[in-house]
Amino acid sequence: MREEFRGDLLETGRLLVSMGESARSAMHNATLALMNADQARAETVIARDAEIDANYRTIEELVQHLLARQAPVARDLRLVVSALHVAADLERMGDLAAHVAKTALRRHPAMAVPPEAAGIIASMADVADRIAGKITLVLSGQDAVRAAELERDDDAMDALHRHLFELLLSPGWSHGVEAGIDCALLGRFYERYADHAVNAGNHVVFMVTGEPAQPR
Amino acid sequence: MREEFRGDLLETGRLLVSMGESARSAMHNATLALMNADQARAETVIARDAEIDANYRTIEELVQHLLARQAPVARDLRLVVSALHVAADLERMGDLAAHVAKTALRRHPAMAVPPEAAGIIASMADVADRIAGKITLVLSGQDAVRAAELERDDDAMDALHRHLFELLLSPGWSHGVEAGIDCALLGRFYERYADHAVNAGNHVVFMVTGEPAQPR
User: Fold this and answer.
1) A56 and B215: CB-CB below 8 Å?
2) Taking the model in full, what pTM does it have?
3) Which residues span the domain enclosing B203?
4) Measuring CA to CA, which of A68, B88, B97, B155 is 20 to 30 A from B197?
5) Would you say B33 and B104 are in contact if contact means Cβ atoms under 8 Å apart?
6) Which residues does A contribute to its contact with B (CB < 8 Å)?
7) Chain B: closest CA distance from residue A105 (Å)
C-alpha cells in the first residue's frame, strides 16, 4: 500500500515536472513570437497548450485514484492536495502563455509591442521565466527554494507592471489606444503568470519542506 | 462514519452557498461603485474580499479533514474534490470583483467608464450576475441548471467582450488611452468572472446530477 502510494506520488511528481517545463517553455516561446512577430511560433504555443491541459486532467485523475485507493492522511494527504493546486496553477500558466501568443498573432505581421515598451515587457518575461525555472528545478529535486525568494521575484514583477502603466499613461505615449490596450493586457498576462508561478512555488516549497504556503 | 461524512458535506455546502452569495454580491456592488464613482461602496467590496478568502481557507481545511477522516471513494470522493474546485473559482470571483472596485477607486471622483461604454459594461455585469445567481440557487438546492444554459450565458459574455473591444478600437473612441485601458481591463475582469462562474457552475451541475463537467 505504502509502496503503491509512493509510486503514484512519483508519477504525479514526474507529470508536474513535465507540466512545469511545458508552462515555462510556452511563455518563453510566446515572448519570442511576440517580440519577433513570429506567426509559426505563436501558433505552436497555442496548439501545444492542449498538451498541458491533458497533463492537468491526467494529474487530476491520478490524484483522485490515489485518494480513493490509498486514503492518505496527515502530511501525505496535504502533499496530494498540494499537487492538485500546483497542477491547476501550471495549467493556468499555459493558458496565459497562449494569450500572449494570441496577441502576437492578432497583430501579425505588425509588432504588437512598440519599441518603447519592448524593454519592460522583455523584463517581465525574464522574471516570469526565472520563477517558472525555479519551480521546475525544485519539482525535479535539483534545487531548494525559499518562499522569501519567490516573494522578491513577485515584487520585481509588480514593480515592472507599475512601470509599464506609467509608460502607457504618460503624455509621451504616441502609439494610440490599440497598442496601449495590447500592452496593458500583455502586462496583466505576465503578472498573472508570475502570480500563479509564485503560488505554485509556495505549494512546491510546502511539498518539499513541509512549511505551509500562504494563500495569495 | 457515513452520517459524519454527510454532516461535513452539508457544512461544506453551506459554506459554498455563503461564498457564492458573497462573490455575487461583491460584483454587484463593485459594478454599482464603478457606475456611480461610489468610493465608500468600492472600499467595502475590497475590505469584504478577506471574508471570501477566509471562507475558502475554511473549506480547504474542511475538505482535507473530511478526506483524512472519512476516506470517501467513488462518487463521494468526486463530490468532495468538486467542492474544492468550486471554492477556488468562487474565491477568484471575489478577487475579480475587488479588481473592478479598485478600478472605480483609482479614478474616483472621476468616472472610470465613459458614457459610450457604460451600456456594454452594464450588460457584462448583468450576465455575470445572472450566472453567479444560478450557481447560488443550485448550490442551495433551490433550482436545477443545465450545463448548456451556462454555455449560452458564457457565449453572451464573449459576444459583449468582442463588442466592447470593437468600441474601444473604433475611430470614434474619443476618450484616449487611459480610459481605453481601464475599459479593456474591466472587460477582462467581467469575462474572467463569468469564466470562473461557468466553471464553478459545471462542477456544481456535476455535484448535483453526477454528469461530469468539461474542463475549460
Assistant:
1) yes
2) 0.93
3) 2-209
4) A68
5) yes
6) 53, 56-57, 60, 63-64, 67-68, 71, 73-74, 77-78, 81, 84, 88, 165, 168-169, 173, 176-178, 180-181, 184-185, 188, 215
7) 16
